Amino acid sequence: MRRVMKTFWPVWVPLVATAVLLRAGPASAPGDGSEFAVAFSHALERKLQAHLEGPEVVEKAFRDEMASRLPSAEIADLRWENLQSNAMPLLVRCTIRVPGYAEQVGQRLIVKPGVFAAGAPPRFTASRRLHPIAFPHTWSEQDDVEIVIPEGYELEQATAPADVRAREELQTAAYSLSYAPARHTLIYARTYAFGRNGATIFEPESYEAIRFLFERVRVSDDHSIVLRPKEALAGAAASVKGAG
Fold first, then answer.
1. Separation CA 35–CA 52 (nearest Å)
2. What is the pTM of this model?
3. 1 with 20: CB under 8 angstroms?
4. 205 phi and psi, to 5 degrees?
């Protein structure tokens, strides 16, 4: 599982994140935590915050950010890299366990493969805007996630999320989903970019269009896949054969 995040401010500043495989399983299974490093959102702002307010404030912000998307997440062994460096990418290393991340519905498991973005709240909620919208910089994200399908389960629905593309490359999000049978692994990739055309400030009249674009990305980021027991597949095939 890997995220690469780049910020243009005003030049490329790479923020790299890597992680071990995510293992999906029933809520009742004793899942192990996965140690990984994530590129912290708004890294440059967080480095300034650490300088002015202290690293404990940055740590709280990280925990709050994770809790907003994954309320049941259990974070341990949290440590930082390059928090005091202006030249190196900011990394957060920790062990995280999310009980029930694979939601169990009957015998089926519902999993959101977009681990780095799934569950995020809407960015814009107001029905209208009175003042201009200003983003501090443009950015891009590359997420690569491998999900090991639990023993005894098969894919029931595994479509990729819908891509999002705005005119003039203002915002793009592209997704891919594939399956490696030999490794029993689902491979998910997400490529996102905002502001490829350099635009970061928008008049209030553009608010509805911007809100719509961010909501489309949020819906795609929340995309789910369904796993079901192999017995269910076999039973369905037997039923069809018997009916014939």
1. 29
2. 0.73
3. yes
4. -65, -20
With CA atoms as reference, report the closest residue to 144 among 192, 181, 111, 109. 192
> Of all residues in the chain, what percent are helix, strand and coil, respectively (each to 5)?
25, 40, 35
Radius of gyration of the chain measured on its C-alpha atoms: 20
Q: In this structure, what token pair is assigned to residue 243?
A: 């009916």
Residue 209 has a pLDDT of: 93
pLDDT over threshold 80, residue 186: yes
CA angle 218, 222, 224 (to 5 degrees): 155
- Strand ranges inside 158-234, DSSP E: 164-165, 171-180, 185-194, 201-202, 225-229
Alpha-carbon span 202 to 210, nearest angstrom: 9
**Residue 224, both tokens:** 């789910």
Distance of alpha carbon 5 from alpha carbon 90, whole angstroms: 10
> What dihedral angle (degrees, nearest 10) is formed by the CA atoms of 101, 104, 108, 113?
-10
Which two three-digit tokens encode residue 129?
A: 């805007």
Distance between the two ends of the chain, CA-based, in angstroms?
44
Phi first, then psi: give them for residue 130, nearest 5 degrees: -100, -25
- Domains of the chain and CATH, by start: 2-243 (2.60.120.1130)
Measure the CA–CA gap between 243 and 176, rounded to whole angstroms.
37
* Span 65-107, pLDDT tens digits: 888 888 888 888 888 877 887 777 667 777 777 777 888 889 8
Q: How far, in Å, CA of 1 to CA of 19, rounded? A: 4
